[in-house]
Design brief:
Radius of gyration: 44 Å
Largest sheet: 40 strands, mixed
Number of strands: 40
Number of helices: 7
Length: 694
Amino acid sequence: MEHLAPECQRRGRRWQRPRRARSPIPSRAVTIQLDWVDGGIFFLNSRAGLKNESGVKLQRFCLSVVAALVLVSPAVRSQLIEGGAKRFKHAFVDEQTGKRTMLLTGGSATNISNEELLIGDGVRLQFFDDTGKTNLEVASAACIYNLKIESVASTNRLEASSGSGQFSLEGDGFEYARANGSLTISNHVHATIQKDLLQSPSQMATTSSSAQSAGRTEAAPATNQLLHIFSDRMRYQSNLAVFEHNVRVEDPQGKMTCSALAVAFSERSPSDESRRIESIVARQQVVIDSDQVHASGDQATYRQATEAIELTGNPAWRLRQYEGRAEELVVNRRTREFHARRNVEMTLPPGSIRQSGSLLPESSSETTAAAAEGQPAQVRAGDFEFKPDVTDTNFNLAVFRDNVRVNSGNGNLDCELMTIMSSVQSNRTESVVAERSVVMEQGDIRVTGAKAVYTATNELVEVTGNPEWKMSQREGTSEVLAFDLKNRAYHAARNVRTRLPPGALGASTWLRSGSAARTNAAASGTSTDPPKPIEVASDDFELKPDAANTNLSLATYRGHVRVSEPERMNLTSEELTVTGKMSSGTNQVEGAVAEGNVDLVVREAGGEKRAQGDKAVYTAGNSEVVLTRPNGVKFVVADAEGVIEGSGSKAVYTGAPEILELSGNNPVLTAGAGKVRLNPESLKKKAAPALPKS
């Protein structure tokens, strides 16, 4: 018992020398969590900033304490205290500058061996900077100074704080060894940091100026402005504090765990009364959790100069309802921007890109299934950024860049840039914008263009930049292409060009004779050349379900309509409406109506038919064409047997029986051979057709 410290004897426990400081732990896997509170994603991001109560200055000041003990001259060290002393006080001075660096005080000092001095009854270490100001104070019940190995050690509790009170530290057992120049706290480390240590002096000045201009005085730091760090062990050397083993960081806005956490402090500047944190690096299984964000990786680094937190080493995250991974993740505390770089892979929740996950219209059955289940979307990109919308703080922007590919299971979307705008409160998608080399695919539908914009309020998608589309066997181009997703319709505008499959305007060409139709049908069945598609040009085009029968669709072409079925038919009009089956992939036509300056030309092997009028109605069931015009329909049939010309108010041509019926108040017919019949009513007014001209 003769070598036990009196303080330890009074407490009834044996004196145990603290463990030696071990070498730094090598870097390994790390995991970090993020937070989205008060304008920040990581929980480290707070408007108040981060405060480090003791970590930085403790290390520097503890180092100064050790240096002060070590710098005692050999003469002083040889003068052991005989029988103990009261009210011990000793100042340590830098031999080169002559300035006081540390003041060691205690209630008593006692020799416990030829090499060790016990300082007890309340030990206080006070460290000074170059200007003579106190920058760290350390208090403990007792400590032992070993003159031979030049170390200071204690198993007692340590409490320390910076001169400004921004940093504090406590723990059980500490040792300083001059050999490695580091201070080690052995057990139950707890550091408290005020968040404003993470702000630069300019930011502090801005904050103070804003507060004064608002007519209020900043109060002392509140509890929710503190950052707490817990660990099993801590090493401090120069301007670096390293927390090791079971590191836990707690903040009102989130938590972080890791195996090692290094806090680096800056030197005190003439314009700043206190040192600030330059960087915080978390290593080995770092995990950060907060209210809306979770992230993990191999290493996380915070840099004060940029106010950015970088997560590397296969980082993965969950941001609100977004989940993903990349090679690097960066969070800007000031701007609240979340940035993932290189090989980004993400899963977006149902509804992020419309409920079905596709920006193309579905059939009624597909729409019902998609609405009932919802479709998450898998996204790959070179870059991802999540940030507030600078034009409206009620919205957030999720921006994907470089080789963006979206797969929802219900369709694909490829582009170079995709921006999703969502509301801050509900996280509801308000719009989706895809730009540059846009390709949208769903089933047998493919649409390309330079830009596609989806608006959730009206369920509309607008494609611009020379859009092209292919829907089953139907193809087209225009200047603008719009989809009404709610009503399963689409609309093309300006310079519309479409290609329709053979038979899209009826199984047999209008005005074609029954024998010619049968001959062509047989030929098409044996010919090696596939039938050529029908080409339609117009100013405007719209396809939508028929309001009278939703199993049918209405395809309407408007403005300078020109229809060409190569080597078979030409049709011009102001408007053309085709009624057909709604099912995708079918070409079954119920009928067609052409209106406004209708000019129809049909070519056959033996001749040509031409009709002109205001309106032409084609019925596919009987291959009948009804042409009308109040001021007179014109009809010409030319073949090897001659030419038939007629005019009237109405002309009806039925292809199967090859019958032409011309009617009106004063129908006129100039006929050669052929099966031509005048309406009986018209015959009463005109007994016989006019004779052919000589």
